Amino acid sequence: xxxxxxxxxxxxxxxxxxxxxxxxxxxxxxxxxxxxxxxxxxxxxxxxxxxxxxxxxxxxxxxxxxxxxxxxxxxxxxxxxxxxxxxxxxxxxxxxxxxxxxxxxxxxxxxxxxxxxxxxxxxxxxxxxxxxxxxxxxxxxxxxxxxxxxxxxxxxxxxxxxxxxxxxxxxxxxxxxxxxxxxxxxxxxxxxxxxxxxxxxxxxxxxxxxxxxxxxxxxxxxxxxxxxxxxxxxxxxxxxxxxxxxxxxxxxxxxxxxxxxxxxxxxxxxxxxxxxxxxxxxxxxxxxxxxxxxxxxxxxxxxxxxxxxxxxxxxxxxxxxxxxxxxxxxxxxxxxxxxxxxxxxxxxxxxxxxxxxxxxxxxxxxxxxxxxxxxxxxxxxxxxxxxxxxxxxxxxxxxxxxxxxxxxxxxxxxxxxxxxxxx
Length: 423
Ligand code: GDP
Ligand code: IMO
Ligand code: MG
Known about the structure:
The protein has about 425 residues and is of the alpha/beta class. The protein is about 30% helix and about 20% strand.
C-alpha cells in the first residue's frame, strides 16, 4: 500500500491538525515526519479543543497507530506534559503511540542556545518559538546529537555530559545571557525516565512492514513549505524539510511509495515570527481577518500576521511537493471582510514576475492583485458546496484555474464537522 502525505503550503498553521483528524478514519497509521514542539496542531470536536505539539493528530481515534518518526525532534518534558494531558481524556492513548529510536532529543541546553542566539540577533531575530529546534537540528547534521535510542544505552549519562559540555562552551559566546540549567535538567531527566517506559521502536521496518501488509499510512507534516530549510524564505525558516521530501527522510519511506499529497492552505495567508511577507496587510482588513480568524499562535500565543492569498507562492509550494489535492481552510473567516484581493504576480525590480525570486525582500517586491467580489454570508453552518454564495464559488474556481490542482475539501470552521468535501 502507498503512503499519503499531508502538509502545509504556506508559513504554517494552515489547519493541518484538523484535517489529519478528519482523514484519520481512512488510515491505519498516522506518522509525524519532522519538526517538534514548535508545532501546534489544533483539533476540535464534541465541543472540546485539543492542541498537539509532537504527538500525531490521529491520536484520538481507536485502532490507529501514531508514529513519531525519525525526522522529529522531541523535548521529553513537553512530550510528557502533552501525554499527561491527553491521558486524562483518552486513557488508551499510550497503546496507540510509537516513537522512533532515531528521533533526536532536544536538551535543556538546546533551548538555552536557541534563546541566547535569538537574543543576540536583536532586530534580525528569526522569531523562533524558542523550543530549541534550530540547535537540535544543528547537532543532528553536525553529528553530535542524542537520539531516543541512546536513552536505552548504559552510557547515556556520559553521552549527555559530553554534549552539554560542548553547549556550555558555546554559551560562553553569549556573555550577557543568564541561565540556570540545574532546574531544567531535573525535569528533563525525570521526563527521560518516563520516555523509557513508552513504546520505542525501529520505525523504518515498522513502516516498511505496514506498507507490505497493505496498511494505510498518512504522513503528517508540521510547519509549512515556506518555512522549509531549503525552499522557504531563508533564513526566516525552521530547521527541517517541511516538504514532501521530508516525509521520505523523516520516516524512511521511498519516494515511489508516495501517492496522494494533500496540500493544506488558508483562504488567505498568515505568518508568525519574522521574515518577508509580500501580501501582508497593515490595515483594518488585516486586523479584521486576525480577529475573525483568531489568528494567535497555538504554541506561543503570538499574534499572526495576516495577508491576502499569494498565488505565486502557492504554485511554488504545489510544485515543490507534487500536490495532488488542495484543501482550503478558514474560508469562513473572509465573510464580511469586503472585496477580496488575490496576488497573481509580483512587480520585482521593475519587472513583472510570476515566481518567487531568490530572496523575498519586502522593499523590492510589490504584489500585483486581482480583485474579486467578497461575500457576507456566514459559511460556518453550510454542509454542501451548493450552499456557497456565488462569489465564494468564483473564488474557488479562480484559484483552481490559476494553480491547476483541484480543491477537494473546504473547511468552514474549526470543528471536525465543519468540513465540506467536493467532487
Ligand atoms: P496547524 O498548525 O496547521 O495544525 O494549524 P493551527 O492549529 O496552528 O491553526 C489553525 C487554527 O485555525 C486552529 O485554531 C483551528 O482550530 C482553526 N481552524 C482550522 N480550520 C478552520 C476553519 O476552517 N475555520 C476557522 N474559523 N478556524 C479553523
Ligand atoms: P505548525 O506545525 C507557524 C516559525 C516560527 C519562526 C520560524 C522558526 O503549527 O504549523 P523554530 O522554532 O522552528 O526555530 O522557528 O518558524 N514556526 C511556525 N510558524 N506554525 C508552525 O508550526 C511553526 N513552527 C515554527 O514562528 O518564525
Ligand atoms: Mg500550528
